[in-house]
Amino acid sequence: MLLLLLVLAILFGGALQRVAGMGFGLVAGPFIVLLLGAREGVLFVNAVGAVMALVVLWRMLSGVDWRRYAWLVAASVSTSVPAAFLMRDASPATLEIVVGLVVVVAMTLALVTNRLRGARRPFPEHARWPLLVTGVASGFGSVAAGIGGPPLAVYSVLDRWDPRAFAATAQPFFMTNAVAAVVAKVTVADVVLPPLAWWAWLVVGAALFGGVWVGELLAGRVSASATRRVLVALAYVGGLATLTRGLVTLLT
C-alpha cells in the first residue's frame, strides 16, 4: 500500500511537471513526506525531482534561458550547505511543520502575486537582484522541504516571463537545485534515502517515466486554468495534512 501511494504521488506530480513546468515537489512532496517521514521523504523528493527535471528537459532544451539559469543557480547552490546546517538538528515534527508551511505560504503568495499581476511593472531588463533573491529562496526551500518551485513561480509572474521559456528554464534549474540539496544533506546532515528494495526502486523509476509520459499526452489538451486549479487544490491538501501531522506530533 505504501509503494502504491508513492507511485500515485509520483505519477501525478510527474504529469504536472511536464504540463506546467513545475509541480512535482509542490504536489507530490507533502504526500511523500507523509508516507516516508520528514528527513528521508524530503531527500527522496530531491532525488526523484532531479531525475524528473532531467527527463522533462530533453523536450524543452531549446527554450532554456541560460543567462537567467546561471544567476538563479549561483544563488541557490550557495544556499544549500548553510540551509543543510540549519536543518541538521531539527526534529522530524519540526521538519514536517516547515514542509507544510512552505507549501501553504508559498502557494498563497503565488496566488496573491497572480492577482496583483496587472498592478506591477516588470523588473528592469538587466536586473540581477530579483534572480538572486529567487535563487536563495528556492535553494532554502529545496533543502528544507524539497520544494523550490514557488519562489520561481512568483518571480515569473512579477517579471511577466513567457510561460514556455519559464517552463523550459525551470527544468535545469530544478535539476541543479535538487542535486545540490541532495549533496548538502547527505554530507552535512547525514540524511540517507529510504531503504526500499531494489525492485521497489525499479517501480519508482517506472512511475517517474510514466508520469512524464502522461503529462506528454495531456500537454496541449488540458487548459492552463484547469491545471492550475488542480495543482493549487492538491498542494493545499498535502501541505495542510503535513503541517497538521507535524503540529500534532510536536504537541503530543
TrEMBL record:
Family per record: Belongs to the 4-toluene sulfonate uptake permease (TSUP) (TC 2.A.102) family.
Primary subcellular site in the record, as a coarse category: membrane
PANTHER family noted in UniProt: MEMBRANE TRANSPORTER PROTEIN (PTHR30269:SF37), TRANSMEMBRANE PROTEIN YFCA (PTHR30269)
Species lineage: Bacteria, Bacillati, Actinomycetota, Actinomycetes, Micrococcales
Pfam families per UniProt: TauE (PF01925)
Membrane topology field: Multi-pass membrane protein
Subcellular location(s) of the protein: Cell membrane
TM ranges: 27-57, 93-112, 132-153, 198-218, 230-251
Record protein name field: Probable membrane transporter protein
One term under GO cellular component: plasma membrane
Superkingdom classification of source: Bacteria
Taxonomic source organism: Promicromonospora citrea
Keyword Transport: yes
Keyword annotations from UniProtKB, A to Z: Cell membrane, Membrane, Transmembrane, Transmembrane helix, Transport
UniProt keyword annotation of Transmembrane present: yes
